[in-house]
Write a structure and sequence with these properties.
By secondary structure, the chain is of the alpha+beta class. It folds into two domains: 167 residues, Glutaredoxin; 124 residues, Glutathione S-transferase Yfyf (Class Pi), Chain A, domain 2, CATH 1.20.1050. The strands form two sheets. Strands 4-3-5-6 form a four-stranded mixed β-sheet, sandwiched between helices. The longest helix is centred in the middle third of the chain and has 21 residues. It is globular.
Length: 331
């Protein structure tokens, strides 16, 4: 994918990855995010970063990609919190190049950047920090007024979206209510480590030991969640919470991509008696289906790769009906 080094884009991913995997014993290690500011109601500093980012309509712009599960979280929140008229959106082209995430030059394309006219996402990073060094990832929350990046940490962006703009939109649905936060955070941590990131630890493992170390905890957690959902409509009861929205992007990609491309093939999502109807329930919530593109997942995760898919063969999809009634009534 490439990276920025002192503000210059270099396509040295292979060298960097070799160094990373050599140090980690063949394990996939996710990099940390660098921009950690917060939008708040009045612009005071949030838990991390600088202040000066008050919630204002039209000021902020979201950069995402349909195939990225981390960006998908923010697309979901932009939908369920009614932020489409308040926060703009630019989608990167699903097929990355040697420049990483890129945009189409054609203004009529859905993958065009109308705000900064960027050709590649790394230009957004260097616009905010000309000497930036590190990975260039989506999502990115951009401040049009200050011409800088607010945040590129998806978990924190959705927390901002959950409450910072409530007075502007009138949407006060709270997916992280204080009295449930301890339970939500505990679920988030386990799901992130073993499921959201677990599929990548499995799929990008370069030794058998690293693969085994990742794949069994992945399915142990999926089994645990399936049992939990036998007595709960959603992960924390009869109310959708942040834990559900953070899990959903991984579940939606599971059978189309992770099961085959990432060797997460002990069981399919459709084999789970509770996780499968639960996923359909969330998918059928208003507006969610418009954030989903199963063909992009299938083609993107099976794109040509010297290590995982050298011939670029795209498998056919088995028939799955996400619109079937979920049967997840309140208990």
């Amino acid at each position: 994918m490439g990276k920025l080094v002192n503000g210059s884009w270099l396509t040295d991913e292979a060298i960097a990855e070799q160094q990373q995997y050599a140090k980690s014993g063949g394990r996939f290690v996710r990099t940390t995010t660098d921009f950690r500011n917060w939008i708040t109601v009045d612009g005071v500093p949030g838990p991390t970063g600088r202040g000066g980012f008050p919630a204002q309509p039209g000021r902020y712009h979201l950069y995402g990609a349909l195939n990225c599960p981390w960006a998908h979280r923010t697309l979901i929140y932009r939908t369920v919190k009614g932020l489409a008229e308040t926060i703009g959106l630019s989608l990167a082209n699903p097929r990355r190049s040697d420049q990483g995430w890129i945009f189409d030059a054609d203004p009529a394309s859905r993958f065009h950047d109308p705000i900064n006219q960027a050709h590649a996402l790394h230009q957004i990073y260097t616009a905010a920090a000309p000497d930036y060094s590190g990975r260039v990832t989506v999502p990115v929350l951009w401040d049009r007024q200050r011409a800088t990046v607010v945040s590129n940490e998806s978990a924190e962006i959705i927390r901002m979206f959950n409450s910072a703009f409530n007075e502007i939109t009138g949407n006060r649905t709270d997916y992280a209510p204080p009295h449930m936060l301890a339970e939500i955070d505990a679920l988030n941590e386990r799901i992130f480590q073993t499921v959201n990131n677990g599929v990548y630890k499995t799929g990008f493992a370069r030794t058998q030991a690293a693969y085994d170390e990742a794949v069994f905890p992945l399915f142990e957690t999926l089994d645990y969640l399936d049992r939990r959902l036998a007595d709960h409509r959603y992960l924390c009861g009869d109310q959708i919470t942040e834990a559900d929205w953070r899990l959903l992007p991984t579940l939606l990609r599971f059978d189309a991509a992770y099961y085959s491309a990432f060797k997460c093939n002990l069981r399919r999502l459709v084999d789970y008696p509770n996780l499968w109807p639960y996923t359909r329930d969330l998918y059928q919530q208003p507006g969610i289906a418009k954030t989903v593109d199963f063909d992009i997942y299938r083609i993107g995760y099976h794109s040509k790769s010297a290590r995982r898919n050298p011939f670029g063969i795209i498998p056919i999809a088995f028939a799955v009906d996400f619109s079937a009634p979920p049967g997840r009534e309140p208990n």
